Amino acid sequence: MEIKSVGVIGCGLMGSGIVQMSAISGFDVIVREISEQYLATGLGKISSQLEKAVAKGRMDSAKQEEILARISGTTDLADLAECDLIIEAVTENVELKQETWKTLDAICPANTIFASNTSSIPMHIQAVVTNRQDRFVGLHFFNPVPVMKLVEVIRAATTSDDTYEAAMQFARSCRKVPVSCIDTVGFIVNRLLTPYLLDAIRALEAGIATAEDIDTGMKLGCGHPMGPLELLDFVGLDTVLAIAEIMYEEFKLPQYEAPEMLRRLVKEGKTGRKSGTGIYTY
Ligand code: 3HC
């Protein structure tokens, strides 16, 4: 099936990136946020990213206008009824995702494909609340979405061949490299990345070095673009905590257990770059 229009649920860090990438790739996109204020913030982020691309000479203003014209926003889920593909990018919370899918399932025609951008929650737990388990798939993007090349395509036992192929094709149309993964908690990247990020906090807690030196160690010693503590702030400490809790619940392995410092920072509202403070202050 051909995907022409995309609906995105959530215009936060990941949602806004997915909207931007989809519109740049020629899709008509409608994004839903829970309030006009969140919507304005998310759409504002996209506009300023495009503005930067024009200022750097990577895009002309006609192209910028063309891309922006493909994007619309709403606070009403019912406005996504005409979309061929709906990508969910809401908070990493099972009940919230299930509630969203249940509502959309009643609104959208049977052929609309539902895709979750969850970082860790398996598809079958989400698909089960819908009447379209064959048209449910995972499309896990990476932050910043317009820049990172990877998409994990997660195939549940119930995902049909057509749905899986449409998801792979969508990823390629967005000039991403899709990799396939079975429907398991954390998929490929977060299964490996989460223990690494948590270990970096454990190293900081243990006082082995300063945050700056831990980050410099991994950047210059291993060629990573960001150190693990910078990356934690970039992804959001609350998001990493939610992922760790879901993974620990599933695997009961110590490497997924959230360190005390992570819990404390999140409790204090220090969630990283988005709040102005996390491991570092911005
Ligand atoms: N949106 C769009 N474009 C962005 C952007 C954003 N949020 N942030 C940076 N860019 C663009 C810049 O405009 C620039 O484009 P240009 O080459 O056309 O000028 C390019 O990316 C490079 O940006 P900068 O020069 O500002 O900065 P860097 O060279 O330091 O790169 C980075 C920034 C791409 C974020 C790089 O530091 C990096 O790759 N960091 C690691 C990110 C990572 O690991 N992400 C995965 C996180 S895990 C995840 O998302 C999974 C989830 O489930 C938790």
The rough form would be described as globular
In quaternary terms, these chains amount to single chain
Overall number of strands: 8
What integer value in Å does the Rg equal? Answer: 19 Å
Label the CATH architecture of the largest domain.
3-Layer(aba) Sandwich
What does this structure look like?
The chain is an alpha/beta fold and 282 residues long. The protein has two domains: 5-182, Rossmann fold, CATH 3.40.50; 190-273, Orthogonal Bundle (N-(1-d-carboxylethyl)-l-norvaline Dehydrogenase, domain 2). The chain is 47% helix and 14% strand. The protein is built from eleven helices and eight strands. The chain has helices at residues 13-24, 36-55, 61-69, 94-107, 123-127, 161-173, 189-205, 211-222, 228-235, 237-251, 260-267; strands at 5-9, 28-32, 71-74, 85-88, 113-116, 136-140, 150-155, 177-182. Strands 3-2-1-4-5-6-7-8 form an eight-stranded mixed beta sheet, sandwiched between helices. Strand 1, helix 1 (13-24) and strand 2 form a beta-alpha-beta unit. Helix 7 (189-205) crosses helix 9 (228-235) and helix 7 (189-205) packs across helix 10. The radius of gyration is 19 Å and the shape is globular. The model has no long low-confidence stretch (mean pLDDT 97). 3-hydroxybutanoyl-coenzyme A binds at residues 49, 52, 56, 58, 119, 142-144, 146-148, 190, 225-226, 231, 235, 239.
